[in-house]
Amino acid sequence: MGKALVEQLRAAVGPEHVLVGEAAAEYGHDATFMEAAPLCAVRPADTEEVAVVVRACAAERVPIVARGSGTSLTGGSVPLAGGVVLSLERLTRLEVDGPNTVAVAGAGVITAELDRAAGEHGLMYPPDPASIELSTIGGNVACNSGGLRCVKYGVTADYVIGLTVVLADGQVLRLGGKLRKRSSGYRLMQLFVGSEGTLGIVTEVIVKLVPLPRYRATAMVGFATLEAAGTAVARALAAGHFPTAIEILDRASMELVRDRLPPGFEPALEAVLIVEQDGNDEEFVQVDLMRMVEVLDGADNRIAQSSAERDKLWDARRSYGKVLMAMPHNFFAEDVAVPIAEIPEMIRRVHEMARRTGLRIVTVGHAGDGNLHPTILFEDAQRPLVSHAAAQIFRDALELGGSVSAEHGLGALKRDYAEREHGPLAMGLMRRMKALLDPEGLLNPHKVFPEQPADDEFLNQMPGWIPDPERHRRRAELGL
Amino acid sequence: MGKALVEQLRAAVGPEHVLVGEAAAEYGHDATFMEAAPLCAVRPADTEEVAVVVRACAAERVPIVARGSGTSLTGGSVPLAGGVVLSLERLTRLEVDGPNTVAVAGAGVITAELDRAAGEHGLMYPPDPASIELSTIGGNVACNSGGLRCVKYGVTADYVIGLTVVLADGQVLRLGGKLRKRSSGYRLMQLFVGSEGTLGIVTEVIVKLVPLPRYRATAMVGFATLEAAGTAVARALAAGHFPTAIEILDRASMELVRDRLPPGFEPALEAVLIVEQDGNDEEFVQVDLMRMVEVLDGADNRIAQSSAERDKLWDARRSYGKVLMAMPHNFFAEDVAVPIAEIPEMIRRVHEMARRTGLRIVTVGHAGDGNLHPTILFEDAQRPLVSHAAAQIFRDALELGGSVSAEHGLGALKRDYAEREHGPLAMGLMRRMKALLDPEGLLNPHKVFPEQPADDEFLNQMPGWIPDPERHRRRAELGL
Hints:
Two copies of one chain form a homodimer.
Chain A: H1 2-13, E1 18-19, H2 21-25, E2 40-42, H3 47-60, E3 64-67, E4 84-87, E5 94-97, E6 102-106, H4 111-119, E7 123-124, H5 137-143, H6 150-153, E8 160-166, E9 172-176, H7 188-192, E10 201-208, E11 210-211, E12 215-223, H8 226-238, E13 245-250, H9 251-256, E14 271-279, H10 282-296, E15 300-303, H11 307-318, H12 320-326, E16 330-333, E17 336-337, H13 343-357, E18 360-366, E19 371-378, H14 383-399, H15 418-437, H16 469-477
Parallel strand pairs in A: 2-4, 3-4
Antiparallel strand pairs in A: 1-2, 5-6, 6-10, 7-11, 8-9, 8-10, 12-14, 12-15, 13-14, 13-18, 16-19, 17-19, 18-19
């Protein structure tokens, strides 16, 4: 059966675009450490070819895993049930429609390229996941990706105004258009955003664009306590400051990137915020930032006076992944969210757990929207502890009214926490939506929906979760 | 059966909160001219009472129409199949959580009160439908309401981060929370937003808030042609200006409010834009606006130098409803959207149709997001023409890649256009979502889904569509 299907797919998309064996194995892993061998990897040219591939697979009841660049940090694009990996890398048509301030992009367009193309029209595509130079707009839609600029601008879902989706039976569904505002019918589009390829395969995306701010201003502000950093964020917002980004580094993170902090920056601090403002006038942006820094009222601060100084301030945050990679430790990075006032408490719990377990945990995050990335550094002997620690982080986030995933999706890694987060009623509805749109369960199996009770061994039970230092290089390239 | 149910509801919510006869009839109409008599109107106190009411109705298979303030312009809250009108007016609990920059509001909270309460914490709830002083946050969620500030800030859906929904069987579904960012599970919440009470009854809403801008600056810019106004909008955005609002008035509208335009404002213009900028510094906001006016490059302009002057510039737009009401004509107002570059073409088509039919049609709109409100003024003898004209407006909007409803919902008035807008595949999925969540079809029957082919007689076939000048007073109060 498998062989006949592969032949059929070769006829559909051209033999050079159906990969098997070792070539296909390259499509069997993502930026986690999970991997699985697909029957084959297929690279269709356009929506119509995607539909042909899906119909062929559906006829044979063969699973289909859609894939962008494979930068998922949750095993999201690993073909755990085998089947066909449907790579959307050739769907790279890109049109920026300046007069309508929208862009139409094939699912395989790299998000940074979309943003740069918008920039040529004086416009911007705001969501900027750390993986922006590698990940695709299709993958971003699948995971409802966030990024640094989300504080002011929101996440991927807030920009999607049109989608072309190939359904599980191969029908092509076209939703929305170049329209910025609509109050007509159910918001089906939003059901596909964040559904991680389990409800349909997004082949084309229409996004709203916003005016490109011409200038940016950046500052680093240090705080003696986590609480002081937390209340400072709320105070700045309540004073009318609407920053582009508010990144937080805890003390452990500051130690990790100590030599990249500004010279003379007060060393005895518990937290650092990097704040950025953007706008259309160089002076106004700088003055607004300076006032915001005043309101933040930190124990030490630096305000960049040039773009070189801006880059230096960002370096502590941006080099984070590379520094982690260079460590003698292995590491495991997480992505949780809490209501923004709970950030100090969440970080405190992470610290307490680090003390208790002896694990080194460094935490950075997007403080403006409550998104934290605690990263567990560990040596081989500590390996059994990691799963327990990650489970505790998830429990704490949920206890504080948060989520086990802020911007990475659930994938395979966190699927077992879904019901704990959403409750049985919502989960039941999600299962019924899945049954409605993919009755045979062919689209990205073993993702999103829980398969066993979430417990402290969740990582250890995950096939191939064990970190591989080689793979870290790729993660580091993603900017973590 | 009806009588037993009414007794049951009296026991559930207290006899004084179950209205019948004339008192119930008050709940049988909205801001259109449609009306229908409900079996009774019920005013539950909280989510639990709503659930009891819904269970009682479900057991008897009696339709339920949820209702906020009844400001719908599409018959959305008219109980066309009779049954129980479930008024959420008593669900007015309101909590602004400053540190988390969110608000928790009962469905019956008036949206302007929510915004003012946020303001006391230095925060803002941006979506501002014209009905903001009358309509409820629950109604705004049901219709995914927009408003003037949407250009910069987006619509209701962009702010909803938590919902409590009573499902058709009376189960209480709690979605989301005080969390600003989440990439976990399907976005069920967004399915209820804009579903006009047909999928579940929203009883509580959690919304994100943003920093309250301290200052505003306003200008009026006139253009010799519609094209010049249209390209000016795109040019300003591409130059990096991100205004709060960009309202457009066509020549017919300008004539309607002629004596409210600034003295000496060039009379021979085809379009006027009212642009507003907001921000945290009085001078910066004013300077940014002035630069934007320069980029807009109009034939005449006025930049307000004081808040009194700002009010005067806005008066032309804000008094629009009152002026319409004072006319000897009857009128019928519409709400369509097109991609923003199509605004000149859409208005031109409206003008051409006005010339052809002899109807007077005035058009205002939110030019920054393509949302236009053509309003047909007519005398009794012209009545048969109105339905044809409205149908042509819908056809034109769809032909230009737009929608028959930008911010008012489909309700009963526009339901027959839904399939033409969304196509059979999307419509089929919407029907299946409806069947999944409301298998008995008890929630707000005869809304959203088409019941007959959309044709030029759609209005004439709508029971009670015929405008009633008395009712216009209410519409005018809504600010249109």
